[in-house]
Amino acid sequence: MTERKSRPTRRDIMHGGAAATVLLATGMPEATAAPSPAAAAEAPLRTVRLPVTLTINGSPVAAAFDPRTTLLDALRHQLDLTGSKKGCDHGQCGACTVLVNGRRINACLTLAVMHEGDEIRTIEGLAQGDTLHPMQAAFIARDGFQCGYCTPGQICSAIGMLREAEAGWPSHVTSDVAAARITLSDAEIRERMSGNICRCAAYPNIVAAIRDVAETA
């Protein structure tokens, strides 16, 4: 005659659960216990800064940046070059445009630590002493600004744009994309400067200023 296996009773299950609870409560290593939200909030944050060497407006600059810092914020808040403006901070208005290795970029969309060894030119570095850059002089002569907030980015972008046209880079409106040199009509200038917004709507004067520089180059 075979023995019937006894099933665990409700009392057995309760005793087992209580034993497991005691084991977990007394045997859990302290290292695995998660810190309380209050303790986590009070814990000091460790800031990491990476050394970077740049050439800014012709002068070497050695600095250390938080790897999350944009080039725009590094220029404005750490290097005191406040000519480049923060407009949208999303790369849509062009107020932060600077020249990096001769090419125009939105400084709000790139990290400072990405530019080790690069040559950066901001609006502060365009003039030669008391002699304005031709584009700066043209903007003044043509009254290409009103409030002036977008002007540093407009001027840097215009200088970069002229270099692109001289190199034969076509735009969306270029009729002959194989041309060695682009003819800068008003339509070409407007298209190539479309990434720079002027909320005062001084666009006709900006186009005229850029055309003056292009024709005398």
TrEMBL record:
<dbReference type="Pfam" id="PF00111">
    <property type="entry name" value="Fer2"/>
</dbReference>
<dbReference type="InterPro" id="IPR036884">
    <property type="entry name" value="2Fe-2S-bd_dom_sf"/>
</dbReference>
<feature type="signal peptide">
    <location>
        <begin position="1"/>
        <end position="33"/>
    </location>
</feature>
<dbReference type="InterPro" id="IPR001041">
    <property type="entry name" value="2Fe-2S_ferredoxin-type"/>
</dbReference>
<dbReference type="InterPro" id="IPR036010">
    <property type="entry name" value="2Fe-2S_ferredoxin-like_sf"/>
</dbReference>
<dbReference type="InterPro" id="IPR052914">
    <property type="entry name" value="Aldehyde_Oxdr_Iron-Sulfur"/>
</dbReference>
<dbReference type="InterPro" id="IPR012675">
    <property type="entry name" value="Beta-grasp_dom_sf"/>
</dbReference>
<dbReference type="InterPro" id="IPR002888">
    <property type="entry name" value="2Fe-2S-bd"/>
</dbReference>
<dbReference type="InterPro" id="IPR006311">
    <property type="entry name" value="TAT_signal"/>
</dbReference>
<feature type="domain" description="2Fe-2S ferredoxin-type">
    <location>
        <begin position="50"/>
        <end position="126"/>
    </location>
</feature>
<protein>
    <submittedName>
        <fullName>2Fe-2S iron-sulfur cluster binding domain-containing protein</fullName>
    </submittedName>
</protein>
<dbReference type="InterPro" id="IPR006058">
    <property type="entry name" value="2Fe2S_fd_BS"/>
</dbReference>
<keyword id="KW-0408">Iron</keyword>
<keyword id="KW-0732">Signal</keyword>
<dbReference type="Pfam" id="PF01799">
    <property type="entry name" value="Fer2_2"/>
</dbReference>
<keyword id="KW-0479">Metal-binding</keyword>
<keyword id="KW-0560">Oxidoreductase</keyword>
